[in-house]
Amino acid sequence: MIRIENVTKYHEGRVVIDDVTLTINDQTNVGLIGPGGCGKSVLLKIVCGLIKPDKGRVLIDDIDVHKLKPTELADLRFRIGMLFQNYALFDSMNVADNIAFPLRQAGETDETLIAEKVKQALIDISLPGIGDRYPNELSGGMKKRVSFARAVIRRPPIVFYDDPTAGLDPVTSSKIFILLRKMQHEHDTTSVTISHDIEGIKDICDRFAMLDRGRLIFEGDRQAIEACEDSLVSQFWQGYSDDELNV
Ligand SMILES: Nc1ncnc2c1ncn2[C@@H]1O[C@H](COP(=O)(O)OP(=O)(O)OP(=O)(O)O)[C@@H](O)[C@H]1O
């Protein structure tokens, strides 16, 4: 279970995460939504220990993430897969080595096994045989899928996806969402997915949390968000605005 308790974060004199409390139960897939800049990515980075909160705490299976020593934090991160917004692939490594990185980092030395796992991962993301290519030879959508493969290669029980379909065409986006769903169903992962693609995450998440200017303004299941009377939540969910657009 992931428990975010009264987490607050300031950045350059202003509050970025404002007293957020949220519980994510095991094998639950949470869609984290909200306007650009509301703090979604910062919250995920706080949860996985990359950014320290100014107040509050994060517990993963009762372990206080920000009280861990660096080596203990590294151990915890072995259990967490992360798909970053900016791909975060290593440009100097080919695709196969990028995908194999978490396996080798975890101490796997059986190169035959690694090669088999990488081969299967490339098949799973519908990019068989591209292991020898380098990230700069790939399209944005291919990089996202390779990042996905790397994030889940060790089948981590917890996975965080930061806008996995940002900037992708609809066909590639739907492929990514299919992969996400497959991970959830076949490996019972607990996940948090940040996405601006409401239609896409409707079907892959069982609960939803919405941030607005760092505050948690909604948490609940699909039925609850569809019935939510808060105009900000319902407009965001349905993808329209009462205000005229200032263009
Ligand atoms: N290391 C950091 N610690 C705390 N706050 C940060 C840090 N880096 C950036 N910020 C601030 O956090 C705010 C929220 O950014 P964040 O990337 O979390 O928004 P977001 O909701 O994920 O936006 P988007 O949907 O556009 O990706 C920004 O205003 C940014 O200035």
Automatic annotation (TrEMBL):
Transmembrane regions: none
GO molecular function: ATP binding; ATP hydrolysis activity
Domain of life: Bacteria
Domain ABC transporter: 2-238
Keyword ATP-binding: yes
Gene3D superfamilies: P-loop containing nucleotide triphosphate hydrolases
Keywords tagged on the record: ATP-binding, Nucleotide-binding, Transport
Keyword Cell inner membrane carried by entry: no
Protein name listed in UniProt: ATP-binding cassette domain-containing protein
